[in-house]
Specification:
By secondary structure, the chain is of the alpha/beta class. It is built from 8 helices and 4 strands; from the N terminus they run αααβααβαβαβα. The protein has one domain: Uracil-DNA Glycosylase, subunit E (3-Layer(aba) Sandwich). A 4-stranded parallel sheet has the order 2-1-3-4, with helices on both faces. The N and C termini lie far apart (about 35 Å).
Length: about 220
């Protein structure tokens, strides 16, 4: 039996989403049987990166639908899992940009440095990508970004039309926006490869006197 969905992280619990939208989603999850990434990792992105620590935002669509892959952080997988194709392309661009890439697909070290790795939908049915996309999760993504913006300028890395549409209108003049094609095999060569997002974010942070993100550790 699947454990009940968890409570929202305290640092984000005041968002309107959790009083208005979360109760209905929580009830749907409670009756949905198995779903990914599971209760223990549902709010992993928010737990790892409180709003006052967010420096950059990478927005995904929904968790990996393959059992054992999703770990609650957008584009990330558990250390022992082979790299999904999009993440493989992300690491290829990272090597071209900065000369190295992480040893595994676990991106929790990015989250710990202030990279909010949030999906627009935080849950999915096994083997059914997008199954929970219309449940209202997208309102959380917009509210979380707006909350993080209260603490300073942000770098937005928006890969693909879905991410760009989901956060349309939120970036401000003081924010950095890097909007390119998605790193999936179908679109990576249409503007993702060669975009150098990682060095661009670090150059932007350096110009403000802020420490860079170690993308390659």
């Amino acid at each position: 039996m699947t454990p009940p969905p968890p409570r929202p992280p305290a640092a984000w619990a005041h968002l309107p989403f959790f009083s208005r939208d979360w109760p209905a989603i929580r009830d749907r999850l409670a009756g949905a049987g198995d779903w990914l990434p599971g209760p223990a990792r549902l709010f992993a992105a928010l737990k790892a990166t409180p709003p006052e620590q967010v420096r950059a935002v990478i927005l995904g669509q929904d968790p990996y639908p393959t059992p054992g892959h999703a770990n609650g952080l957008a584009f990330s997988v558990a250390p022992e899992v082979a790299l999904p194709r999009s993440l493989r392309n992300i690491f290829t661009e990272l090597r071209d940009d900065l000369g190295a890439a992480p040893a595994t697909g676990d991106l929790s070290h990015w989250a710990q440095q202030g990279v909010l790795l949030l999906n627009t939908s935080l849950s999915v049915d096994p083997g059914a990508a997008g199954a929970h996309a219309r449940w209202g999760w997208d309102r959380l993504a917009r509210q979380a970004v707006t909350e993080a913006q209260k603490h300073g300028p942000l770098a937005f890395i928006l890969w693909g039309g879905h991410a760009q549409k989901a956060l349309a209108g939120l970036p401000r003049p003081q924010d950095l926006v890097i909007a390119t094609a998605h790193p999936s095999p179908l679109s990576a060569r249409r503007g993702f490869f060669g975009s150098r997002p990682f060095s661009r974010v670090n150059d932007w942070l350096a110009a403000q006197g802020r420490p860079p993100i170690d993308w390659t550790a």
